[in-house]
User: What shape does this take?
Amino acid sequence: MTTFCIGDVHAQLKKLDQLLCRLDTIDASAEIWFVGDLINRGPDSAGVLRRVRQLGERAHVVLGNHDLTVLATAADTDKQTKVDTGVLDLLSSDDANDLLNWLRYRPLIHDRPDLEWIMVHAGIPGCWDLTEAKMHAREFENGLRSPDWMHLFKQLFGNEPSTWPQARGQVERNRYIANALTRQRFCESTSGVLNMEYKKTVAAAPNGLVPWFAAKDRRNRDHPIVFGHWAALGRIAWPEHNVWCVDTGASWGGPLTAIELEGQSVIYSVR
Assistant: This one.
């Protein structure tokens, strides 16, 4: 089976359609993985959700920080005057409830038993091994899929706690899980403490900060990880760390990129 993984789409339906067409000429039955941030920033959030849903069981999607932001906006009507036109079109569409309910049932981490690869939107903190990461992802997902899911967003956003042991209550646990899996980029090199402030290049990073995947003694380095979220990272393949970043800035005029997971080095891009 061929497995393609597509980077952050950000409501760029035209680019997505072009890329899917290209991938179908290679293998029309391939699985398509999406690293999250399907929506927001671009012109057609609803169209992208509809297109990915049309792929049926071929599509596997993890949630990104922008997906969670839009769900939070749907849960709080006071925020809906502050979002872009593409998101307003989604929230006011006839099938908005169906699309958003489908979205909130997507996981935070995806893997497949016969394939070593792990997919997550931003990263996995070095303090967790893969088993722990999936367990904590499910903890968050259970809240997002519950009847009172809107309550989850009331205190979700913020940069603290920056370490897992500091997350003592459910609110803080949810916040750390969401930050670690959908927002993180840098951490302190030796302690693994999340740094949610600095978002620029690796080369210009302050002393002591490293990409999450370069943290000392990272416990989840045994499996290759594919992620998005970080167009400014500037490189797709980081084989020395066993990670690949497939976000190439589609929302900023860059290409929308897919990699074939089995071949690792095969890249297909559409501007």
The chain has eight helices and 13 strands. The domain at 3-270 is CATH 3.60.21.10 (Purple Acid Phosphatase; chain A, domain 2). The two ends are 27 Å apart (CA to CA).
